[in-house]
Structure formats: structure tokens, C-alpha cells
Amino acid sequence: MIRLFEQHQIRKIKELDGMWEFSPEGDITKYQLPVPGCWEQHPNFSTYRGKGTYRKTIVITESSTLRLEFKGISHTAIVYFDGELVAKHYNAYTPFSTIIKQVEKGTHEIKVLVDNSFGEHSALHIPNDYYTYGGITRPVSLACISDTYIKQIRFTPSLEDGLWYGQLDVTIHNTSKNVATFNLVSTLDHYEMTFPDVEVLGDSETTVSLKQKFPDITPWSHKNPKLYSLHTILSSGDISIDDLIERVGFRTVNIIGTKLQVNGETVFLKGFNRHEDYATVGCAIPLTLMVHDMDLMQDMGVNALRTCHYPNDEIFLDLCDERGILVWEENHARGLLLEDMQNPNFDRQCEDCNREMVENHYNHPCIILWGILNECASETQEGRMKYQIQYDQIRSMDTSRPTTSATCRHFTDISLDLPDIVSFNMYSGWYKDVPVKERNEEEIEWIRNSGGDGKPIIVSEVGAAAIYGYRDRTRCKWSEERQADIIEENLKVYMNDEHIIGVFIWQFADCRVTEEGPWFATRARCHNNKGVVDEYRRPKIAYDIVKKIFNS
């Protein structure tokens, strides 16, 4: 499944989900692995880190230009079509596509070299407090397209003098060498947007824009997540040659003083940090389990979610759109020291991830906040410069959403003036037995005196660990009782502090961590055990505590 809705009525598209042939590096054995899926699901590769080759044979019934799209490959991908190199991509969490011109009908082979190894070549993918799985972990699709097709649609709603407007930016790609002129029409509900004739030079792309008033639409909100289908058709003369459907919502996100407003209404974010990780399927989570996660979180009363620490599967974002969950989506960089940020590949790989995240997920009304560089070297001048560069990049692509980053550089961070919202990670009662209220007051005062004065503040991580099923009357650490106590005490402080606009519990579910690096030493079972449910989604005592507080 590519999305939760149909994206094309004209363009012919085929999903390539199913069984693919797989061989690990240095092994001529041919295994059959599911796509999407993690190779760790196979008993021979449960801890495999390295390279492997996927192969799939396809049949093309008529000559055509093809567009091959991968929603996620972990972590580096090199793609061949009939033995010819057609694409290279880094980063497991953003999609990429490639155009293959004038493919003859018949049988063809797709070959994908996948690498999830650690090394200098990979600045963002390092041993970490979560596990980076291997494989083609998200859906794959193959489309037969005309020489000119709709590459991208961006829809930006705005509320002006009480009336809703929408700006539509459509990017058209001409793969042929000839100049061509096209007609472009978009339909949203009963509104039709007709563009002037569009001329596209050969072997290039162009973007056309149109802004229109929408007098009687229903806004998208957490309480009423109204979505509209936006259908754009590209025509040559009287012949429709391509189309693209997006789902959009009318909503605005603004910061007014120290408050966050959606559609002019102040909101307090009650949410979870959630990793894409499930005990039996790794990060390749199917729709049924995504829905189960969403049901559990909404049962606890959440209205928000943070996609730690990478862009999420777009199917899950579709669910958030449908259910009115407010999303903080962030790029792929977590806990990097300055020496990590000085990796020669760091700037380029972050730039690519930021661009692909914003471009591909721009139309989701659920996303209200872009986040970058969780717990990185924001206490250094060199690190500050890199934060500034990435904030500037994201703001150049999207001015409709605020920005933030989660810091743990308490009393040393020199970058708090850069984001629109200041966010901090704090584990009072777990790593340090300190009074929660007193520690919070110290943190807020420091933020106000260190560049964050007058900005909204989010507690981006708060929590404690517990081993599922471990109960102890002394309420010692690692027991479910102590976890529940710590979460309850922290929530009562943070949710009653006028300076704080939101709190995200770390975390929704236990997740696997890498054995490489230092994380295993403080992570029993090689898992981060701070979930209020375990990796099988079995609730701990804290589940009911969160439900009581969030719903009260």
C-alpha cells in the first residue's frame, strides 16, 4: 500500500510489494524476502549489518517511460535497471524516485544494492539509542508515464481577513528533448482552478502557481480533521496525459507571543515520541499495526505526536491527517557530538534529508512543526552554525510552519535563539533524583536568559524506564510502579506551567537499540525500555496514569 487514498486516475501505477530475491554480500544463496520488510525478520539475518542485493523481475506490456519510486530503503541504496545504474540514495526515511526513459515492452530486472553498515560514508546513521534495520523497508511503486508528467504539488492554505485562500504550486517535468505546451486544471471540492497554458522546455521542469479564494470550506483541526481531495490533470490539447491527487486541509499554524495556535485557537500539545519499531516486524510496520498504535495513543488522550528521530512512513502521516493528530516531524540526526557533525558528509546528507522531508510531506495538514538535530552539539559555535544553516534551509522551503529542536545541553546551549519554539528533554526522577518542580523552574529561567525569552517552550522528552511485567512493592527503578510514579509527577508539573505549551512522553513503545556503541550498557535487553507499552504493545501501569491525566 502506497497511500491511504488513490493518487491517480490517469497515470498507470503498479505496486511492487511482494517477495523479492535477496542475497547478502559474499553469499550466493538466494533467499526470498518480503518487500516492504526488514531483513532482520529472516532468522539468518536477525543481527545482520552490512550489504545485500535485492532483485525483482517485472513485465512491461507496452513501451513507456517509467517512474520507479522507493518510499524507503535502509540505509543506502544503489538501483540498477537491466544492469544500468539509474539511482543512488542515502537516508532510510525519505522517498526517492528515478525516471527510466523509453523502456521497451517485455521482461526487465530491478536490482537494488542495500547497505546499512556504519562508517564515515554515513554521517547520520550511527550506532544509536534506536535500531536501524536493513532492507527495502517501505513500499515500492512503478508508474508508466508520458514524457511530461506532474512531478509535485504544493498546497498552502492561508486565512486572510476571515476568508480561506489556497496557493497551488505545480511542478511539471518534461523528460523529452522537445519544447511542449500543456493545459493544467485542478479541482478541489466544487472549485476549479485553471492555469494559463504552460510551456515546458525540453529535458527540464517548471513550476506554475495559482492562488484562489475558497469561501465555504471547513477548516482542518484536531477536533474536526476535514480533508479535501485535490485532483490536478495535465493535458495536451484535448488529451489528458497525467494526473496527481493529493489530500489537503485548510489550517494555519502561528505563534502568538508564547502560545502556539492552530486556526487561531491556542493548543496544548499532549503527545508521545514514537519510533517506527515493532517486535516482530522491525520498522516495516504494516497498516494494521499502525492503526493499533494510533488506537492505543488516542485511547490515552493524545492530540500530538513527535516522529523521533526521522521522517515517518507517509501512510502513518495519512492516518494522522485523518484522525487530527498534530505532528512534529523531524529530520534524521540524533545525539551527534561535534566530531560527528564535522563528518565530511554531514552537511550534504542533512541538506538532502531536510529537502526530501519537506518536499514530500509538505501537504500533510497534520504536520504543524518541523524539527531538526535532536540533542546535537548546540553548545558549540561550530554546532550553532550548522543549526543556523538547517533552520535557514527549512524556512526557505516552508514559511507556514514553525521550527524547533530538542536540546539536552542544559545550561550550556548557545543556540536557543535560533528556533521558533524552544524544546528541551528532561528526565527528572530517572537519571537524577531531583525535585521536578524546582528543576523545571531552573530550566525555564535559564531558557529565558539564554535566547529563548518570549518564545513558546515544549518539553520534548520526559519519562522513565520499566521492564514489562516487573513489579516491586518498593517501587524501585526499572519497576512498572516507579515508571508510573515518575511520569505522573512530571506531567503534573509540566501541564500546569504557564510557560509550557506541550509535553511529549518518551516514549510510546519500547524499541530495540544497537549493540554497537555504548547504548547496550544502559539499555537492559538491548532495548530502550521507556515505553508505556512494550515492543508487543502490552500496556504497563503507566498507560493508565497517562490516560487519566491526558483525558482529565
Helix content: 10-25%
Residue stretches low in confidence (pLDDT < 50, at least 5 long) are: none
**What's the CATH class label of the largest domain?**
Alpha Beta
Tally of structural domains = 3
Strand proportion: 35-45%
Category by helix and strand content: alpha+beta
**Tally of strands:** 33
| Name of the CATH architecture of the largest domain | Alpha-Beta Barrel
Report the radius of gyration as a whole number of Å. Answer: 24 Å
- CATH superfamily grouping of the largest domain: Glycosidases
Counted by DSSP, the helix tally is: 8
Main pleated-sheet profile: 8 strands, parallel, barrel
How would you describe what is shown here?
This protein is globular. The chain has an eight-stranded parallel beta barrel with strand order 24-25-26-27-28-29-30-31, surrounded by four helices. A six-stranded antiparallel sheet has the order 3-2-4-10-7-8. Strands 15, 16, 17, 19 and 20 form a five-stranded antiparallel sheet that branches. It is built from eight helices and 33 strands. Helix content is 18%, strand content 36%. The mean pLDDT is 97. By secondary structure, it is α+β, with helices and mostly antiparallel strands. The protein folds into three domains: 134 residues, Sandwich (Jelly Rolls); 101 residues, Immunoglobulins (Immunoglobulin-like, Sandwich), CATH 2.60.40.10; 284 residues, Glycosidases (TIM Barrel, Alpha-Beta Barrel), CATH 3.20.20.80. The longest helix has 17 residues. A hairpin with a 2-residue loop joins strand 19 and strand 20.
